[in-house]
Write a structure and sequence with these properties.
Helix content: 25-40%
Shape: globular
Number of helices: 9
Low-confidence stretches: 26-36, 265-356
Number of strands: 9
Distance between the termini: 107 Å
Largest sheet: 3 strands, antiparallel
Strand content: 5-15%
């Protein structure tokens, strides 16, 4: 009898152990499955952060805004192009255009060879450039809206008016900026953190590049860029535009499609438009430019720190917090390339023009 009872107890214990083991295995399996789930996507930049990103370019002529936003999706090529320009500073005009045309860059990057100070700025502030590119890839409509919002603010502040350098018009509440002379493009120099009225916190580590930064509260115009030398190339000024209604940059009358792999994607397509690739010459340069997006805490080249989502604080070049009172007074040193834009000594377009 005792032996029989012992066997029954042993059978019950074994059954209990089997049930417990099965339950643990199921629990571990569920945990493992949970761990394999894709991580939560990083938060997209807020409207305020997007305005901070587009502030340095929002007052550029429309076609140049299109070129900059398109080229910002190719930060690796921006670096290559700037290095190339530095080593070919003797080239000017048509000779420069012919040599640029031979390079294996996206048309948007080639187009920036027309505006050396703009290209230099995108290279010097590469963390900002890559963050701008990623924002445009993921939120083209929001980026477009941010540009128009800041243009409205600049106009309210009296800093965006018609003048001898550019024509400012309004169509259905959309502000359009075009060169006053179709053959000459002026890139306005301004302080992007002060020109819109209420101060905007500077992008972390922002470096004020000569030629596009002017230490005042309005706009300054220096030397204009003649675009005739580049008119015969497929990436020149006349090939670019901005569709404010569709909220997208245009290249050759089609929506610009980026095929950059700098952000770890196979290619970027903005919005829900199905135009495909219209002659873009984008290429993959090695491993590309990874992990530099400012809003996700990464750090870019030149030791510039990234922008944490929701974290706003102004920094000088050494990473120290600074106030708005000192802005516009910094000495930026260095010089722009030959044939570049020299801001600060030209005519001032703020407050003296007329609204249309």
């Amino acid at each position: 009898m005792n032996i029989k009872l012992s066997k029954q107890i042993l059978a019950v214990l074994l059954s209990c152990l089997l049930v417990q083991f099965t339950a643990q295995a199921g629990s571990n399996g569920a945990t493992g499955q949970s761990n394999e789930q894709s991580p939560t996507p990083a938060a997209k930049p807020s409207a305020q952060e997007l305005r901070q990103l587009v502030a340095p370019i929002a007052l550029y002529p429309d076609a140049l805004v299109a070129q900059v936003l398109a080229a910002s999706t190719y930060p690796t090529q921006i670096v290559e192009a700037e290095r190339w320009m530095q080593s070919h500073s003797d080239l000017k005009g048509d000779k420069l255009g012919k040599e640029v045309d031979k390079q294996n860059w996206d048309p948007s990057v080639k187009a920036l060879a027309q505006f050396p100070s703009v290209l230099e700025n995108m290279d010097k502030n590469l963390s900002w450039t890559s963050s701008l590119g990623e924002a445009y890839v993921n939120q083209p409509q929001d980026v477009t809206d941010a540009v128009q919002t800041l243009r409205q603010e600049a106009r309210k502040a009296g800093h965006l008016n018609d003048n001898e350098q550019e024509k400012v018009t309004t169509q259905d509440k959309t502000i359009i900026i075009e060169p006053a002379n179709p053959q000459v493009v002026y890139v306005p120099a301004y302080d992007p953190w002060l020109v819109y009225g209420a101060p905007i916190v500077a992008y972390p580590g922002w470096y004020p590049v000569p030629g596009i930064f002017w230490g005042g509260v309005g706009l300054s115009f220096g030397i204009g860029f003649g675009i005739g030398f580049f008119g015969g190339f497929g990436w020149g000024w006349g090939h670019w535009g901005y569709d404010w209604h569709g909220r997208r940059a245009f290249f050759d009358h089609h929506e610009f499609v980026s095929h950059s792999r700098d952000f770890g994607h196979e290619g970027f397509h903005h919005g829900d438009f199905g135009h495909g690739n219209f002659g873009h010459g984008g290429s993959d340069h090695g491993g590309g430019f990874h992990g530099s997006s400012g809003f996700h805490g990464g750090s870019g080249f030149h030791g510039q720190s990234g922008m944490h989502s929701g974290g706003f604080s102004g920094f000088d070049h050494g990473g120290n917090t600074r106030g708005f009172s000192s802005r516009g007074q910094s000495s930026f040193g260095g010089g722009s390339h030959g044939g570049g834009f020299h801001g600060g000594g030209g005519s001032h377009g703020g407050g003296g023009g007329r609204h249309r």
